[in-house]
Design goal:
Largest sheet: 7 strands, mixed
Radius of gyration: 23 Å
Helix content: 25-40%
Shape: globular
Number of domains: 2
CATH topology of the largest domain: Aspartate Aminotransferase, domain 2
Structural class: alpha/beta
Amino acid sequence: MQLLIDCHKDTKSQRNSLEPLCLRGKKEKMNYQNTLEFAKELDANDSLKDFRQKFFLPQHEGKDCIYFTGNSLGLQAKTTSQYVQQELDDWAKLGVEGHFHARKPWMPYHEIFPKQLSAIVGCRENEVVVMNSLTVNLHLLMVSFYRPTKTRYKIICEAKAFPSDQYAFETQAKYHGFNPGDAVIEVSPREGEYTLRKEDIISAIHQHGDSVAVVLFGGVNYYTGQLFDMKAITEAAHAVGAYAGYDLAHAAGNVELQLHDWKVDFACWCSYKYLNSGPGGIAGVYINEKHVANADLPRFAGWWGYKKETRFKMQKGFDPISTAEGWQLSNAPVLSMAAHKASLDIFEEAGMERLHEKRKKLVDYLLFIIDDCNSKTSEKIIEVITPAEDKERGCQVSMLMLKNGKEIFTQLTRQGVIADWREPNVIRVAPVPLYNSFEDIYRFGNIISSIIK
C-alpha cells in the first residue's frame, strides 16, 4: 500500500519535492517515505510542532519514549502543577472563602468550561457540563433517556463495547425488570470482519423498530479504533422513535464531533485520554438543547443542579437549572477541574482544525510505515483492523498480531515504545497530534521492523 496526501504544487521546480505541507500552489499527490529525513521534513513543516514541548514525555535510557497511549492516558501538561497549585494556595490562604474569593472562585468553577468544550464536541454552551466520572454520568443519563415500557425497552449497541458500557446496559435493563439477553441488542461485524458496517447498524435499528428505547454506541470503538457514523446512527434511531446517545471516551479530543448539528440526544466522555486531564480526571456530559429545559424529564437530582438563584434557600422540591448543569449532583471538585483547565487551554491555543489536520496525516503515515514493515517480511505479521478511511477512524490504530504478538509487545516496551496490549492479540497505538511527531512514527517503524526480523 502506498498512501498519498494532498498538497499544493509549487511552481518553482527547484522546491524540495519532499515538502509535506506544500503551503502554496496547486494540488498534487506526494508519496510517503520511510526515511528519517522525510519524517524530520514533515515535523519541520508541522504548525503544531512546538506543542510537544508543553508536555512531559516519559523517558527511556535518557531519551523521550515513543508514547503512543494517549488513547489510554494522555500526557501531563507542564502547566498542570501550576494550575492545581494555584487552587491549593488559595485554599491555604482563604479556607472556605475560596468559594467566593479565590482567583478562580470555586462555587462557579465549572462555568469556565462550556465555551472550550463546546468547540471540542461541537455543541452549544448550554448543552455541556463538566461533572463526575464517565460511567457515573452514563448511568445518570440512562436514568433520563432509558425509560423502557413493556413494548419499547431495547438498547442497541456495538458488540464488544467497552466493559463499563456493557455492565451499565446490563444492569440498567435488570433495574427496570428486563432480561439483558433480550433487552440488549449487540450489532456484530460480519463473519471474517473486525469492524461494523454502517448499513448493518442501520438495519438492526430498523429491524427492531418500535421496540428500541435507546441506541447507545461508543463514538470510537476502544478495541478496533473504528469511528462510527454518529449522524447516520442518530437519524436511524430517531426514525424509529428512539433516543440516540454516545460514550465518547475515545472520541472527545480525538475526532471531529458535531453533536448539536447531528441532533444527538445525549453523550458523555472522560477527560484522561485525549483530553490529558489526569488519571481518573473529571468527566463531561452533553445533553441536546431540546431536552435541557424539560424539567419533567426524569433524573437523579443533586443540589448543584438546582436553580442558582434559589439554591441556597435549601427548599424541598427539585427545581433544575435549564441547561445541562441541571444534571449536576455535587459542587465542583476543583483540583481535578484545575488539571482539566490546564489541558483545555492548550486545546484552545492549538485549535481543533489544526489538530484534526495533523491527526489525519500522522495516522496516514503510521499506516504507511506499518505496511512497509510488513512488506519486508517473508510472512505477514501485522494486520491492521482499524479502517483505513479518514472518516472511519481517529488517532488509534489497532494492530492484530498474527504471530508472536505478546513477545513483540514486550520487546517494544523494552525498547522505549509505550503502546497498549489488548487480549487476545491486539497492540493499540495512537499518535496524538498535540505531542507526537512524525519522527516518533518513523522510529516506531524501525523498532518493530527490527523486532519482527
